[in-house]
């Protein structure tokens, strides 16, 4: 008796059809689209910018959809964010799985090792430029201040510059150096115990000296948080014929003005960090921001290079 035996060709064809059918059903039944990723916004403008930029970079690298709330402050400061803005994002995101970070001021590849199919809230500060280094151009396109803020910031710079030129008669190749000073809130006992340090006046004088010896004509515009301690400190210590203390404006106007100077000098905190990052000139930063072996020191990588971009110049 002969058994009906299909030809080899038919075998191959039916096998292929079966295989295709299997792939199709598997895909159809088990395919999961990439999930949504929600930032967990905390803190003030500088913190929000780190959180947004880093979650944007992570979302991009994992093919996830970034969700923000239409009322988030960052959305108000930068109207052109490339994220899914929805009302009540809090409720949309609150059933998602939470992912944390181990160190708030360092780049940790493990923070990004989660299933991109699951909806995720990243409850983390993510203060490292390395999280968004691959999308830097996209972040620069999104972190653009509103026109009215830009106009106000430019008017401030022009105003002080004009005044300076008038009484100094220096106008050729004037380099405007934006200086941001933050000390007051970092001098609170709790902050010091945690490991925060503040920039000293000798650091600032050294940074001034750097620019004065590099350029013939400099004008230092000093911005500070409008608290009593910092205003007083600035008044006593920021002297010099090429130094002008700028009256405080709204936070976004001040950051925008700093970003429009030719170069920057920053002290501590994320507000200064972002002012410098948005400014494309040279940046001098204070590199002694953390007490060794403190709680705060654990948030950073040992060499601090996850936090400070390598093109910036550190001094103390
Ligand atoms: C999410 O928000 C809804 C609406 O307020 C609430 O009923 C629910 O308990 C929340 N879920 C979680 C996990 O917090
Ligand atoms: C993610 O959230 C969306 C919107 O709420 C929902 O449709 C989807 O099923 C969620 N995904 C998972 C894997 O839970
Ligand atoms: C311009 O500068 C002067 C002081 O130098 C100040 O009183 C005035 O408010 C400034 N105007 C603007 C638009 O910043
Ligand atoms: C600035 O230059 C103008 C014109 O050259 C001159 O009249 C004026 O005295 C100068 N002012 C100062 C402070 O040097
Ligand atoms: C400083 O920056 C302004 C733009 O903000 C630019 O017009 C000017 O040329 C710059 N100055 C120098 C010396 O590069
Ligand atoms: C910026 C600047 O020039 N600061 C000077 C202010 O005055 C002290 C003396 O009180 C000088 O040492 C600083 O160089």
TrEMBL record:
Transmembrane segments: 12-31
Taxonomic superkingdom: Eukaryota
Keywords on record: Glycoprotein, Glycosyltransferase, Golgi apparatus, Membrane, Signal-anchor, Transferase, Transmembrane, Transmembrane helix
An example Gene Ontology molecular-function term: galactoside 2-alpha-L-fucosyltransferase activity
Pathway: Protein modification; protein glycosylation
Enzyme class: transferase
Listed EC numbers: 2.4.1.-
KW NAD (keyword) present: no
Gene Ontology cellular component list: Golgi cisterna membrane
Topology with respect to the bilayer: Single-pass type II membrane protein
Subcellular localization, as worded in the UniProt entry: Golgi apparatus, Golgi stack membrane
The keyword Nucleotide-binding is assigned to this record: no
Gene Ontology BP terms: carbohydrate metabolic process
Pfam families in alphabetical order: Glyco_transf_11 (PF01531)
Family: Belongs to the glycosyltransferase 11 family.
Descriptive protein name: L-Fucosyltransferase
Organism: Mytilus galloprovincialis
């Amino acid at each position: 008796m002969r058994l009906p035996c299909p030809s080899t060709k038919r075998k191959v064809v039916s096998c292929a059809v079966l295989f295709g059918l299997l792939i199709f059903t598997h895909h159809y039944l088990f395919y999961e689209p990439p999930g949504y990723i929600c930032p967990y916004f905390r803190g003030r403008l500088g913190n929000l910018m780190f959180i947004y930029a880093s979650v944007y970079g992570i979302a991009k690298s994992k093919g996830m959809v970034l969700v923000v709330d239409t009322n988030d402050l960052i959305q108000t400061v930068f109207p052109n964010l490339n994220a899914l803005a929805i009302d009540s994002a809090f409720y949309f995101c609150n059933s998602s799985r939470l992912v944390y970070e181990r160190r708030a001021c360092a780049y940790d590849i493990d923070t990004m090792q989660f299933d991109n199919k699951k909806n995720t809230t990243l409850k983390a500060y993510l203060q490292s430029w390395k999280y968004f280094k691959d999308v830097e151009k996209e972040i620069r396109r999104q972190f653009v201040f509103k026109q009215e803020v830009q106009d106000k910031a430019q008017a401030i710079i022009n105003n002080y510059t004009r005044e300076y030129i008038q009484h100094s008669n220096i106008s050729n190749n004037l380099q405007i150096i934006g200086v941001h000073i933050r000390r007051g809130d970092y001098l609170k006992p709790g902050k010091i115990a945690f490991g925060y340090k503040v920039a000293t006046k000798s650091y600032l004088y050294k940074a001034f000296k750097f620019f004065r010896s590099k350029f013939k004509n400099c004008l230092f515009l000093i911005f500070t948080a409008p608290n009593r301690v910092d205003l007083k400190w600035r008044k006593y210590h920021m002297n010099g014929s090429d130094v002008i203390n700028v009256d405080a404006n709204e936070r976004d106007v001040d950051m925008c003005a700093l970003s429009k100077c030719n170069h920057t000098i920053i002290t501590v905190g994320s507000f200064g960090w972002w002012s410098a990052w948005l400014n494309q000139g040279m940046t001098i930063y204070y590199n002694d921001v953390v007490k060794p072996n403190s709680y705060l020191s654990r948030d950073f990588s040992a060499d601090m290079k996850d936090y400070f971009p390598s093109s910036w110049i550190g001094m103390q």
